Amino acid sequence: MTNLPPLPRTLKKREADITPHVLAWFKKNYPRSCAIEIKYGKNKLEDHQVTTLAQVAKGSFAYKIPDMGRQNPFDAFLLKDADAVVVTCEKRNCLVEVNRTHTFTIKV
User: Fold this and answer.
1) Most exposed among 15, 35, 71, 85, judged by the fewest C-beta atoms under 10 Å?
2) Is 86 exposed, middle or buried (0-12, 13-18, 19+ CB in 10 A)?
3) CA 85, CA 99: separation in Å to the nearest integer?
4) Given strand 34-40, what is the order of strands in its sheet?
């Protein structure tokens, strides 16, 4: 009998699973344009995310979508006077932080 290496751990894609629910809530209920970063559990923002969200909160942010050989919806986007939103979820309960100035909770 051969010794096979252990199978890799299965990734728990909780953040990927909750994302469509969060986006649907914002599309239906949130009145302004926004950049949304979704975290699940105790995951923290990366430095580049903090920097980018700060640019959005200060007034404008432009981003060129990379051409990766796929069909993109468009080439780039520009956010002006938009909110920088961090959504931290545990199960279906989420804490929403807007522009690092105020928070509220939602259930998705």
Assistant:
1) 71
2) buried
3) 6
4) 34-40, 83-90, 93-98, 102-107
pLDDT digits (tens, 9 = 90+) for 18-44: 999 999 999 999 999 999 999 999 989
Q: Is 16 helix (H, G, I), strand (E, B) or coil?
A: helix
The CA-based angle 95-24-94, given to 5 degrees, is: 10
Q: For residues 41 and 93, what is the distance between their CA atoms, to the nearest angstrom?
A: 10
What is the reported pTM?
0.83
Residue 19 parent element (H or E)? helix 14-29
What is the spatial distance between Cα 22 and Cα 3, in angstroms, rounded to a whole number? 44
The domains of the chain are located at 32-66+73-107
Find where tokens 């299965």 sit.
10
Please answer whether residues 106 and 25 qualify as being in contact, where contact means their C-beta atoms are separated by less than 8 angstroms.
yes
Count CA atoms closer than 13 A to 42's CA, side-chain side. 0
Amino acid at residue number 43? N
